[in-house]
Amino acid sequence: MKKILALILAVLMVAALAACASTTETTTTVDTDTTEAAETADFSVAMITDYGDITDQSFNQTTYEACKEYCDANGVDFKYYKPASDSDEDRVAMIDSAIDEGFNVIVMPGYAFAPAIAQSAPNYPEVTFIALDVSEYDLTSAGLETLPANLYSAVYQEELCGYMAGVAAVKLGYTKLGFLGGMAVPAVIRYGYGFVQGADAAAAETGAAVSINYAYGNQFYGDADITAAMDTWYKDGVEVVFACGGGIFTSAAEAAAKVNGKVIGVDVDQAGTIDGTYGEGMTVTSAMKGLAPTVKTMLTAVAEGKFEGGKVENLGLVSENPDENYVQLPTASTQFGDGFTVDDYKALVADMFSGKITVNNDITIAAADNAKTVTVNDLGNIK
Known about the structure:
Layout: H1 2-40, E1 45-48, H2 59-74, E2 78-81, H3 88-100, E3 105-109, H4 114-120, E4 128-132, H5 136-141, E5 151-156, H6 158-171, E6 176-181, H7 186-206, E7 211-216, H8 224-235, E8 240-244, H9 249-259, E9 262-267, H10 271-278, E10 283-289, H11 291-303, E11 311-315, E12 327-328, H12 342-354, E13 375-381
Parallel strand pairs: 1-2, 1-3, 3-4, 4-5, 5-11, 6-7, 6-8, 7-13, 8-9, 9-10
Antiparallel strand pairs: 10-12
Helix pairs in contact: 2-11, 3-4, 6-7, 8-9
């Protein structure tokens, strides 16, 4: 009997040991997974605003939302900073503050960051700097002789989506157009010159008599003076204004709302924002560039250890498929019609991708030099 009891106890002890071993293995596996996840997310992101803020419904807001969406989805710490004023000193101060608080990836939208980048990037080699719309010319002009390995910047071929918007406007039957730029910086100029070329090509094809009022507001926000100028444009017969320059679209939309006019958005699909605020159906289309995809692609590269800095990439068309490109019109909200259908848009993009259609990006010439058929009324600066 004693032998039987001893045998039973031995069996029970083996079973208990096996259970303990099993529990230990499971715990070890979970701990390993947790460690790997922590290593993958071992960075934090700070975004610093340019002239505007994260409610500008354009450049800053799109960049902010892209950063936040990525970070929220991947468990990455995120914070945005707004400089106290539009100065290089305050932009540098925000970079310093973000780094002092432990953020090691800094995202900056807008060419105005060039001097701050030139000053800060070489001083913080362990920090990753991601810039949008900051060209190599901007950086070298700011005194940066070589691009540091911790810096990546994306610039865009705005003239291409500007061209698409010009074609769309004329082929949809609008013949009295307006271009309202913000400040006459390269990106805004390229948008405008592409718009003129696209309208010109469509006018030559359709035989329509097209005119374009062309002016800059000399700022990236709307105000009473610019709204008054837009009131005059619409009252004089302008049907649609391509409002290109951050928050300056508010002046065009306010004026358009008074006369049932139309606008064309910029940088992102602004139809929801503009139509929801100023009037349903106001936005004909938007000339977009891939700010959000760029941000998410670069943050993913950082997370995966595949970040490649020391360069400025010029992003444009990468496919015949319109939705795969860094410059495009929104297929969901563009007011396609008989004159310009979704298939027409796809054919246009295919011809541009193949090189059958080329768009001049020389910003040293005058706006009117891009037109052979349309009349361009170059009005200079509104204020």
